Amino acid sequence: MELDVVELSRLQFAMTAMYHFLFVPLTLGLSIIVAIMETVYVMTNRPIWRQMTKFWGTLFGINFVLGVATGITMEFQFGMNWAYYSHYVGDIFGAPLAIEGLMAFFMEATFVGLFFFGWDKLSKRAHLVVAWLVAIGSNFSALWILIANGWMQNPVGAEFNPVSMRMEMTSFFEVVFNEVAQAKFVHTVSAGYVTASVFVLGVSSWYLLKGRHIDLARRSIAVAASFGLASALSVVVLGDESGYEATLNQKMKLAAIEGMWHTEPAPASFTLVGFPDSEARETHYAIHIPWMMGLIGTRSLTEEIPGITELVEAAEERIRSGILAYDALVQIRELKESAPANLTAQFEEHSDDLGYAFLLKRYVDDPREATEEQIAMAANDTVPTVWPLFWAFRIMVGLGFAFIGLMVYFFYRANWKGMTFPRPALHLAVWMIPTPWIAAELGWFVAEYGRQPWTVDGVLPTAMSVSHLTIADLLITLAGFITFYTILFVVEIGLMLKYIRKGPYMDVAETDAWMEKHEHRLRTHDGRVPGITTPAE
Questions:
Q1: Which tens digits make up the pLDDT trace of 356-409?
Q2: Cα dihedral across residues 270, 276, 280, 284: positive or negative
């Protein structure tokens, strides 16, 4: 990677965004799981469920606080490193971010305090309402962030204003109900639910292996396996929907993910594995599944999915169209009110391709002076590097199916085998704890890297979006962010491990007393004491 302002700005934002997203999925999922556990407590009045709610709620709180700290610094970068982007699309992009901060985040933060400090001050039902409001606030916060990001993937409800030289919102409704944003939201939150389920499953399995907190661990596994199975199945279904939306709105991203260099006859096959070669424009040793890509991408057996070569040719035509829009725009701004109607008509006819003319700015100051060679180079820039996308997507999908298998197994053991779990399965669950984060980060990599060279797809190239900074400025701030985030990472891991080792210390006496009475009732009823099987069983 060449050391320049654009690449350093991208590196810094990628580092902060992907680090921040380490906290987001667990926050989304644990908030729901904790609310489910407290619901069971209110319905059954069993203290073990209160203990579970408090324990997993503590881990949620640690993760939530550190997630907030990393999220704030990430948003500052729009003004620091991406000033032209903020100017050009701030009218649209800023609206959902402002709503997220004013509505969702403040609701979430307010009720988090009531959740932790209101146990002895609120009634059980009132506290349950608080728990669900925390969960709703967490997910509602993600909704507005993903609406903003979805607009970057599919910029609807906006148009370019030649007077202000900015994109301006024309329909808030279209921005909010952007189909790409909605697909990203449901897919992302489902992935967060899987992350939290695997986390709860793994930590609970560790307790069973150590012979500690048996009742809490088994009940937690039952909740995590049930919730996680539904969520893992949802991720696959909703991921399929994201693939369909990419066919409609981001054809180049889909072609790069698939390593589809040329348009295939319908229905296109899916490349299971292979080795993409960007120079030869070929995927070596590819293993194909017939018809599958056509069904995923088009929901039909008759529609084609365009390949990279054909999309590059289409990009060349859009660049030429964009040059006409750029030419009209320059003349309109020079002539102002005296601009003839034919110039306005020319701009309106080609304005959708103005962003493609901006791709030439990398090679020439005035896109109207671009040579055929420069147009071809700019068109080739619309192709992201294929092999990282190709493999990131397949590893992510492979992990997704592994989560389904894991959840099916533990769901079966929890419901039909008396909550007994073989030790190898428990060890596997512990080792699986980091994998949902790997899958989630790969998912974001595919979504964002696959959009390059665009900050806003088809509208604003990344190379135009950066602030006027020096390399020294970026290196200093990058080093500062790395240092700050490394410290937070150490704090996060340290606190999580501390409270996991400490275990559910809350309400232990109350829970033990209730369990003793419960066992006595069962013993006097049928003469059998419910035993706690050893981890070996």
A1: 999 999 999 999 999 999 999 999 999 999 999 999 999 999 999 999 999 999
A2: negative
Per DSSP, the residues of 96-158 read: HHHHIIIIIIHHHHHHHHHHHH-TTTS-HHHHHHHHHHHHHHHHHHHHHHHHHHHHHHS--SE
Report whether 42 contacts 53 (CB < 8 A): no
Q: Average pLDDT for residues 322-336, to the nearest whole number?
A: 90
CA atoms within 13 A of residue 408's CA, in its CB half-sphere: 8
Length of the chain (residues): 537
What's the Cα-to-Cα distance from 207 to each of 201, 217, 492, rounded to whole Å?
10, 6, 20
Nearest 5°: phi and psi at 119? -60, -45
Amino acid at 62: I
Kindly tell me if the per-residue pLDDT of 534 is higher than 60: no
Which has the closest alpha carbon to 421: 411, 432, 435, 433? 411
Q: Which residues of 399-435 are buried (b: 16+ CB within 10 A; e: fewer)?
A: bbebbbebbebbbebbeeeebebeeeebebbeebbeb
Question: b vs e for 124-150, b when ≥16 Cβ sit within 10 Å of the residue's Cβ?
Answer: eeebbbbbbbbbbbbbbbbbbbbbbbb
DSSP 82: -
* Residue located via tokens 């986390």: 199
**Residue 329 corresponds to which tokens in the numbers above?**
């725009």
For range 453-470, the mean pLDDT = 92
Half-sphere exposure (CA, 13 Å, Cβ side) for 444?
Answer: 24
**Structural tokens at position 406:** 């894991």
Give which of 10, 145, 3, 97 is closest to 464, Cα–Cα: 10
CB count within 10 Å of CB 246 equals: 26
Mean pLDDT of the region 420-445: 94
> Concatenated DSSP letters for 386-424?
HHHHHHHHHHHHHHHHHHHHHHHHHHHHHHHSTT---HH
Helix or strand run (H / E) with residue 274: strand 270-277
DSSP codes of every residue in 358-393: HGGGGT-SSGGG--HHHHHHHHHTTS--HHHHHHHH
34-43, 145-154, 371-380, 506-515: segment of lowest average pLDDT:
506-515
The contacts of residue 20 (CB under 8 Å, 6+ apart) are: 67, 70, 71, 74
Q: Are 152 and 451 within 8 A, CB to CB?
A: yes
Measure the CA–CA gap between 434 and 417, rounded to whole angstroms. 27
Contact 313, 255 (CB under 8 A): no
Question: From CA 289, how far away is CA 214, in angstroms rounded?
Answer: 45
Please state, in angstroms and rounded to a whole number, the distance separating the CA atoms of residues 25 and 437. 8
**CA atoms of 84 and 500, how far apart (whole Å):** 45
Residue 527: the pLDDT is 46
Residue of 221 and 480 predicted with greater confidence: 221
Residue 352 tokens read as: 């959708």
| pLDDT over 90 percentage in the chain | 51
Instruction: Write down the pTM of the prediction.
Output: 0.90
